[in-house]
Amino acid sequence: MKKKIYDILVIGTGLSSLTFIDAYLENNNLINVISFNKSKKKFPQIDNNHIFKILPPQMIGEDKQVMDYFSLNKVIIDKNTKFFGSLEFGGLSNYWGLQIDKNIEKDISHLSKKTQKKIKISFHEILNKLKLLGQVDNKYKNIFIKDKYINHKFFEKNKELISDEPLLAFQKKGNKKGINLNLINEEKDKLTPSNLFHKNLKNKKIIFHNFFVEKIQNCKEGLKLYCSNGEKKEIFITKKLVLGCGTLITTKLIMDYFNIKREVKIFHHPRLFSVYFSKKKWKNKMKFQPSHFHLKLKKNPLLFTADFRPGNKIIIEAIVKFKKFLNPIKFFLNIIREHFIFSNIFFNPKFSNLYLKKRGDTYLVFSKNKNIKKLLKKTSKKIFNFLISSKKILPFYINYFPGFGADFHYFGTIQVGKSKDLSVNEKCQINKKKNIYIVDGSVFKFNGNKYPLGLIMANARRIGKEM
Ligand SMILES: Cc1cc2nc3c(=O)[nH]c(=O)nc-3n(C[C@H](O)[C@H](O)[C@H](O)COP(=O)(O)OP(=O)(O)OC[C@H]3O[C@@H](n4cnc5c(N)ncnc54)[C@H](O)[C@@H]3O)c2cc1C
């Protein structure tokens, strides 16, 4: 039988691919998508066990999806490195912390004015269409009510630091007074891939093929995809291919396609995790609250962004899982959890230390000898000194560096606006192969924006509208 030739195939169902699909179907009536769904089958495993010691709180219980992601994609994570991914409908996008940086300009300023404008328009369209919480340039306003104890003013007096407010990826239209975060339905209002699918795409014509892609090759009709579902193999032929497999797998497939054997740098935001102890309770009812304040340096705003959220049950659960000696006092920790202030400090990608390289028939993610302890110490001291001067916290804190890659933000391997072999043009077509498009974080280097998914989605929407 003659093989079907697709006009266009999308790979992946994370928020990058689904946003692309949503935009594409505004002007087209059918799309085919290759994405693997959860499988109960036990596949042979690659030893990546060390990463499970620090699985993000949201991913606890999802070990199989993480294991399958690495085993079926044949990726090994070196022992001194952390890295996460998930092979299922929605991928890593199922577990994200739901904060978006609204300042997208800095990371697209190297692109043509026309492209910048299109990305900004797509960004605003996403905010309006998905009804996300927050405020942008006075053009978009769907405000959320913040806690009165730790609020904006708490950060305003400082000479060195500036405060900023992220967008929160909950979908709810507020009134003039705004939305109280305690009234959010965390399951239904969250911007997750399955909610996005059910609210926007369920009635659209999308054909899902339950496979993962192993290899991409040229053929006379266009591109040939070698796929598998772990039991049977399948070949798909397409004229155009849209990759949204997340940075690691997109990059791996492209390195394989071009037979690139050298190491490729994966950019990320090294993360320091801190806990402060508040004198009063920071009240909240959510199971997992995204932070609603960010701090940056006034003079060097690109160096880091620190976020702050109150203690919550999911984080306590994760801490007790990894620090088993705390188990006997879990009940007590939950009682005092509103006195904890958790913070992530995400650093500039110039401190990145992740690399990808082919090794035999697998790919290895590894890091090199790099010491950023001084930077971590200096930054955390700055933030602590400021917090203590506000008289809101007790005079001690805990810092923890979970390792390179444990920040979950992976990007910048195939950047837009560069002329290298691994790069895309402003339409996000691979420069050396124009019928392959990339719509995930691979194409940006997030220097300013430390919460990249908003810009990733805006760009994916732009490409989806144009195709
Ligand atoms: C705990 C956590 C908190 C986070 N918090 C934030 C935050 O607050 N703000 C922010 O901006 N970002 C955050 N992130 C990062 C954010 O989740 C990712 O940047 C984002 O999910 C990437 O989306 P994506 O669509 O590019 O990739 P993914 O969501 O990883 O989707 C990849 C898709 O490709 C599929 N796939 C993989 N391999 C193959 C294959 N071989 N063949 C076919 N399909 C394949 C997967 O199944 C999946 O459907 C967080 C991440 C985590 C884990």
Number of domains: 2
CATH topology of the largest domain: FAD/NAD(P)-binding domain
Global shape: globular
Second CATH tier, the architecture of the largest domain: 3-Layer(bba) Sandwich
Instruction: Tell me the span between the first and last alpha carbons.
Output: 30 Å
Bound molecules: flavin-adenine dinucleotide
User: Main sheet?
Assistant: 8 strands, mixed
Q: What is the CATH first-level class name of the largest domain?
A: Alpha Beta
What is the C-alpha radius of gyration, as a whole number of Å? 22 Å
Structural class category? alpha/beta
**Average pLDDT, to the nearest integer?**
93
Instruction: Report the helical percentage.
Output: 10-25%
Q: What do we call the CATH homologous superfamily of the largest domain?
A: FAD/NAD(P)-binding domain
**Which runs of at least 5 residues are low in confidence (pLDDT < 50)?**
none
In DSSP terms (H or I, runs of 4 or more residues), the helix count works out at: 10
Molecular structure report:
The protein has 467 residues and is α/β, with parallel strands linked by helices. It folds into 2 domains: 1-132 and 191-269 and 352-367 and 410-467, FAD/NAD(P)-binding domain (3-Layer(bba) Sandwich), CATH 3.50.50.60; 139-190 and 270-347 and 372-403, no CATH class. The protein has 10 helices and 27 strands. It has helices spanning 15-24, 63-72, 113-130, 152-156, 193-201, 246-257, 313-322, 330-335, 373-389, 453-466, and strands at 5-11, 31-34, 75-77, 99-100, 134-136, 140-142, 144-145, 161-164, 167-168, 179-180, 206-209, 212-219, 222-228, 233-243, 264-268, 271-278, 293-297, 304-310, 340-347, 354-359, 362-366, 393-400, 410-411, 415-416, 423-424, 429-430, 433-438. Strands 1, 2, 11, 12, 13, 14, 26 and 27 form an 8-stranded mixed β-sheet that branches. Helix 1 (15-24) packs parallel to helix 10 and helix 3 crosses helix 10 (453-466). The longest helix is centred in the first third of the chain and has 18 residues, at 113-130. The protein starts with a strand and ends with a helix. 43% of the residues are buried. The protein binds flavin-adenine dinucleotide.
